[in-house]
Write a structure and sequence with these properties.
This protein has 230 residues and is α/β, with parallel strands linked by helices. It has 7 helices and 11 strands.
């Protein structure tokens, strides 16, 4: 019996813009709207980047505080993971500001280079271990299977479906017992040529796939247990 599926919604990111999709959130109000749509569709975890109102990515602690508080109020019980990745060109000090707000989790982006199989890092126990299947490492089920075998048995892991390969990887993650991250940060398309109108639509698709594939969806409190946060 597989654990319930934890759905993370990466609702904003730092690189996608309203030119890519008008639904990309910048303002606090828009962030709350997108978080709420994902939460109500079944996301237990919201991964948060913040922007200035004009869309410029920022790691400003006060901006994070306002956005995280507003999302908490709109999405009772949701697990929030602020980004420490920020945007291209930011210093480590800038990137780490949101950790000063003591979130339950933070991201640690660990890109595993498949070409260098000797140096696959172990999973830090308190962190969601983000496996990078990108660039020179094609997003294939075989590569995913290889990566999953590198982490300790029983550790929760999450597949992030990025761009064109997003949905097949999401489906593979569901079948293989992983968790799933979707959202505008990673992919704005529901299917080829059809942009999602909200993060909620992307989460709804995961819920439909999970149902078809026999995985139940974890609530935030169930996710806390699975992730050893509670
Ligand atoms: Zn991110």
């Amino acid at each position: 019996m597989m654990e319930k599926l934890i759905i993370t919604a990466a609702i904003c990111g730092a690189e996608v813009t309203k030119e890519n999709s008008p639904a990309i959130p910048y303002t606090v109000e828009e962030m709350v709207r997108e978080a709420k749509s994902a939460f109500e569709a079944g996301a237990a975890v919201i991964h948060v980047h913040v922007r200035e109102d004009d869309g410029t990515p920022t790691q400003d602690r006060e901006r994070f505080r306002v956005v995280l508080d507003a999302i908490k109020e709109a999405c009772p019980g949701v697990i929030l993971i602020p980004s420490t990745g920020g945007a291209v060109g930011m210093t480590a000090e800038e990137r780490l500001q949101p950790t000063e707000l003591f979130p339950e989790m933070a991201t640690l982006d660990t890109v595993v280079n498949m070409a260098n199989k000797g140096e696959v890092p172990g999973a830090p126990m308190q962190f969601n271990f983000v496996l990078g299947v990108s660039g020179c490492t094609p997003a294939t089920v075989g590569n995913l299977d290889y990566l999953v075998k590198q982490i300790p048995t029983g550790s929760p892991w999450t597949v992030t479906g990025v761009g064109r390969g997003a949905w097949p990887m999401v489906a593979a993650g569901i079948v293989m017992g992983g968790n799933v991250r979707v959202g505008f940060e990673d992919n704005i398309y529901l299917e080829k040529g059809h942009k999602a109108a909200s993060n909620g639509e992307l989460v709804e698709k995961v819920v439909r796939l999970a149902k078809e594939l026999g995985r139940e969806i974890a609530t935030p409190d169930e996710a806390r247990k699975i992730l050893s946060l509670a």
